[in-house]
Write a structure and sequence with these properties.
alpha/beta
């Protein structure tokens, strides 16, 4: 076995990325403080061909060198929009995607465990990831159509936002791939 060279990875150009069909998922970053987390989510969104990222509230936005350190150029390929509040982003999503469903990714009393979540293949999805300290804003949580929770079994029961995004995006992409 050997590691593949960059030239063997069949990477597409930014222009090709922009012209390809995307997984019908929009990521909402609700007041995410860490610019490294923001960059990591961009990079994950690029890797899985996610449609767009909505940056909300205090979440940093490109161009910023701290975001670029972890995004590695994904801010150029992944579409993004900035909103003053997450509620404003939710209203924008609802006005543009009548068949869309928004899910908070949070630990809540009525959450659906990620492994039990079955996405409707005809829908567009919004996934809201919250602040590293306080989680999701309560107003945004109440505007969501449902809540997805990542099953955890250790003592901490918390994950870094970029890790949570990677897990949920991968799982949703697996379930939706080939269905849009």
């Amino acid at each position: 076995m050997r590691k593949l060279k960059n030239s063997e990875l069949n990477r597409i150009s930014v222009e090709e990325f922009k012209n390809k069909s995307k997984i019908p998922v929009i990521i909402f970053l609700d007041n995410v403080r860490s610019l490294n987390n923001v960059g990591s989510v961009f990079r994950t969104a690029d890797a899985f061909m996610i449609e767009s990222i909505y940056l909300c509230g205090i979440t940093g936005k490109p161009p910023h060198r701290e975001i670029q350190k972890t995004a590695l150029g994904a801010t150029e390929s992944v579409e993004w929009k900035y909103f003053e509040t997450t509620e404003e982003a939710i209203h924008h999503f609802r006005n543009h995607y009548n068949n869309g469903l928004i899910y908070a990714v949070e630990q809540a009393d009525e959450s659906i465990m990620l492994d039990d979540f079955i996405p409707d293949p005809g829908k567009r999805f919004g996934l809201i990831f919250g602040n590293e300290i306080n989680g999701m804003d309560d107003k945004a949580l109440h505007l969501a159509d449902g809540c997805i929770e990542i099953p955890q079994f250790g003592t901490k029961h918390s994950l870094n936002i970029s890790v949570s995004a990677g897990i949920v995006i991968w799982e949703l992409t697996k379930k939706l791939r080939g269905r849009f």
